[in-house]
Amino acid sequence: MSSNTKNIIRPEFLKNFTQKIKVRYIVLERGNQQFKDIDKLISSINRDLNLIIQELNLRIRDRQLPYITLKSCYGNITSNKRIRVFLHDDDTDIFYEQEIHNQLESDTEISHILDLLVAASFKKITISALSCDAELIIDYKLLKHAIVDIILDIVMFNSFSFLKNMKMADKKKLSEEKYLFFQEKNFDCFYDCPKEKIMYFSLAFLARNESGFNMDDYIDLWDKFIETYYPNCKHQEKSIIEQLKQHVDYEELPKGITKKFVNLLPGAYLLLRTNKDRTEDLHPTIYSVFGIKKYRKGKIKIVPIDEFDTYKELLEHLDVSAFKIVKQ
Length: 328
Known about the structure:
Elements lengths: L20 E8 L9 H22 L7 E8 L8 E7 L4 H13 L7 E5 L4 E4 L7 E5 L4 H17 L1 H4 L3 H18 L18 H4 E2 L2 E2 L1 H15 L10 H5 L22 E8 L8 H8 L9 E5 L3 H9 L3 E8 L1
Parallel strand pairs: 1-2, 1-3, 3-4, 4-6
Antiparallel strand pairs: 5-6, 7-8, 9-10, 9-11
Helix pairs in contact: 1-3
């Protein structure tokens, strides 16, 4: 494919137009040869992760899901409260591992952190010897899937208004509840699990299978989990104006745009907006969609999210931005 920006399709296009992006970190020992391509791996994880989040956002109609940017860092865990994964292998310095263990023993301000030990032919969840909430012993070829599964539950957790503002003790309790939920319902899990109690479990582990990741199963698992443990809690989405302020081009949107939502039924919508002229071949379609005769940046159209496929080609090329809005 040509490197000309007009010819590059952006698979994660919805992320391009939102500021609702969270940052989380993987911590590891500097200089470890097995992880010398960590930045390349994380780039691949971010792409896969945000493609799943984008699809979930198109399927989940009652709330917004934040996107994620995953990064790597080195050294001290307690200096970064956004670390969620400690990555190591048999060559990681034992003194560094002990340092991590000591930091976690004394720290209570991280809701959960997973110990990922890379070892050939494994995909096993167990109790962590380093005081992490759980250890995942994983073959390198499955490492990307495991990290995606861990981070996805952060996204889902933060999509519920009544969960994300919990106190630390309640967040830790919820992590344990997910493992109890798995045990009580006797679900199949992609990873081998212990009978002993572990302090963390991702519901994404149950939606992963040999064929890939089942998004419908994942949504259903979270729905059932909430119904079981938080039946009296109701999600309250931010107001439409607050959601619109997350749009990267909010200042360029028409004044009084919220009025366009007044007569719409509750549900999920896409706010479409023409961007800077990019792909001339798409002009006829854009003219038709927006009812214009000449290309103009900033034209607005609001459509039900069910009509996404109709506009997908325009969105992939970034000729038209799409921003999800939930009306309650």
